[in-house]
Design a protein that fits this description.
The chain is an alpha/beta fold. About 35% of the residues lie in helices and about 25% in strands. It contains 16 helices and 20 strands. Helix 4 packs across helix 9 and helix 7 runs antiparallel to helix 10. The radius of gyration is 28 Å and the shape is globular. The structure holds zinc ion (ZN).
């Protein structure tokens, strides 16, 4: 038995050393894109490719790190020199969230090969570990066709934006309706990266750039990370891309044509970069331009990854320190911002290389149509709006209490690394809660009717929490995630995403002909109530002439009215 084991181990060692020796002599493993520049790899080709790389290269491992809605695994590729160090940055790269925008998928395949197999690039791994999702939307990439990106210039065929549940995974980072997102959250909070890159292709206006960039909205970051992003990372990345011939512009988010100005994107937590910000990770979404040839889109994305790697290698300590400071800073906050709004009066400017926007008669309708005249390229200053002010803050409690009934929320909190304690015995708790005073609904949106413009009243009351319900101390690493998902009026809270909709419907009511007598009795025996009723009639005389309205008013002031209606069930303890 023992001899057999030794034999197996020696064979493994021989195979391993042969692999290492032969690798440099082996041919470079080419990607489908490198064999045909208008091709993006299929799901099987991608996984196969990384498996082959991992077999011949000790710096790469590939594993199944969770499941996806289509029933196939979510693969994770790890690139590391396997040397543990406190001073290593974890760089997280996500590809194929929108498989119709696949340049990052193909760029990553070459990138991973080159940084591990090229002797002149491997030094990057001295202080960087890379965690890479080769393709996130597995259901989407399997749904391959040539038409869903109507205006895109290649590749010849590609996957679809919706996943197996027809969800846009780049709106799913909080609600996590997809198994993809649930797996993603566990992976993300297991590795806690300092930097994330999520690769895309843009739509919209025509201009000269192949590459545009969305970075985390700087004003949502804590001071240390905001400073690093604005003063160090972005200048480096823009210059580095310019140097390799892929000069970038901020993502062209315009009201009309870009020459009238572009707007910084507010990446709320439903988006990848907004989600990452809740975990104090700075993100970059390279968005290549749909009208540029696929080859240029892949190569510019490749260069962008190299630039990120270069920056990270040179500034690893600052990156690690700024995340540490961010976590520390946030742990000291007594009041936290939960929403932001654009400051229209703070206008910056940037030099933009565009094409003149013009109008001519449409050949489809009798209307005029827009076109960008590629014969009239320009480079001029345009307005750049990228200042966001805090629109809303909340006082941070010491703890939240959440009933176990809300298991879908609890599961998502756990997936995000939130530490929860179970309450040991039934406890009457006095604390602060939110009464939902008003809200609006968005029409059907990503499997939900998202609540927005949520107004709350803070109230204090008693509530029984039962054995097995949960207490969440806010004094923990996931503090920001906890606050921006549990405070109901935060734009991407679990309340906004319909996880608490049971409270929005009244369960009991009254029979008016019976309640008449009861209501008369209530007014007769309670002079304070009677006084308020008269004041209400002064405000709204219809109360006096409309019996149903009058009874409803009195019912809602009475003990008969259910307190749970619009009562957000999470209690705060300050
Ligand atoms: Zn996209």
């Amino acid at each position: 038995m023992k001899a057999k084991l030794i034999l197996i181990i020696s064979i493994c060692l021989i195979i391993y050393s042969c692999k290492v020796e032969n690798k440099s002599m082996e041919e470079k493993l080419l990607t489908p894109f490198e064999l045909n520049e208008n091709t993006t790899a299929s799901y099987d080709e991608i996984i196969n490719y990384y498996q082959q790389l991992a077999q011949r290269n000790k710096f790469i491992t590939i594993e199944e790190a969770g499941t996806t809605d289509v029933g196939k695994p979510l693969h994770l590729v790890k690139i590391s020199n396997q040397k543990h160090s406190e001073n290593k940055v974890t760089l997280f790269i996500n590809n194929g969230i929108h498989p119709g925008e696949p340049c990052g998928i193909d760029a990553s395949m070459m990138f991973v090969r080159d940084i591990t197999e090229s002797d002149s690039l491997r030094f990057f791994l001295e202080n960087i570990d890379i965690i890479l999702i080769p393709v996130y939307n597995v259901g989407g990439i399997l749904n391959r066709g040539s038409y869903s990106r109507a205006n895109q210039n290649g590749p010849q065929s590609y996957g679809f934006r919706g996943n197996a549940k027809n969800l846009d995974l780049n709106r799913d980072f909080i609600k996590a309706d997809s198994k993809n997102a649930q797996s993603f959250q566990k992976i993300f909070t297991k590795y806690n990266p300092q930097i994330m890159v999520d690769t895309h292709t843009s739509n919209g206006a025509d201009y000269q750039y192949t590459m545009t960039l969305i970075a985390t909205q700087k004003d949502k970051l804590t001071p240390s990370q905001k400073r690093l992003l604005e003063e160090s990372m972005l200048p480096f990345l823009y210059k580095s891309m310019e140097d390799v011939g892929y000069g970038m512009t901020p993502y062209v988010n315009a009201n009309g044509t870009p020459d009238t100005g572009i707007y910084g994107f507010l990446d709320s937590p439903r988006y990848s970069s907004g989600f990452a910000a809740l975990h104090h990770c700075v993100s970059f979404m390279p968005e290549t331009h749909m009208l540029k040839p696929f080859k240029d889109r892949v190569l510019s994305t490749y260069q962008f990854m190299m630039s990120i790697l270069d920056y990270t290698h040179q500034h690893a300590e600052e990156i690690i320190d700024s995340q540490r400071e961010a976590i520390e800073y946030y742990s000291q906050l007594e009041e936290a911002p939960i929403d932001w709004k654009l400051n229209q009066s703070l206008v910056d400017s940037l030099v933009f290389k565009g094409y003149e926007a013009k109008y001519k008669k449409s050949e489809v309708s009798s209307d005029l149509r827009l076109y960008y005249d590629r014969n009239e390229a320009f480079a001029r200053d345009i307005p750049y709006y990228n200042a966001y002010d805090v629109a809303q803050t909340v006082r941070i409690p010491k703890a939240y209490y959440i009933p176990q009934a809300y298991d879908a929320v609890i599961e998502r909190l756990k997936n995000n690394g939130v530490q929860l304690e179970r309450i040991e015995k039934d406890t009457q708790m006095r604390g602060s809660y939110s009464y939902i005073s008003s809200y609006e609904d968005l029409p059907a949106y990503e499997g939900h009717y998202l609540h927005r413009k949520i107004m709350i009243d803070q109230k204090v009351s008693e509530k029984v929490f039962y054995a097995g319900d949960y207490k969440i101390n806010t004094n923990q690493r996931a503090r920001r995630f906890i606050i921006e998902t549990l405070e109901p009026n935060a734009p991407d809270s679990y309340f906004a995403w319909n996880f608490f909709d049971g409270i929005l419907m009244q369960k009991e009511y009254f029979s008016d002909y019976v309640f008449e007598d009861l209501a008369a009795g209530l007014l007769a025996e309670n002079t304070e109530l009677k006084q308020r009723y008269h004041e209400a009639i002064m405000q709204n005389p219809e109360l006096d002439t409309n019996a149903a309205m009058a009874l409803d008013w009195i019912y809602k002031q009475s003990v008969y009215f259910e307190p749970s209606y619009k009562q957000y069930p999470i209690w705060r303890k300050f």
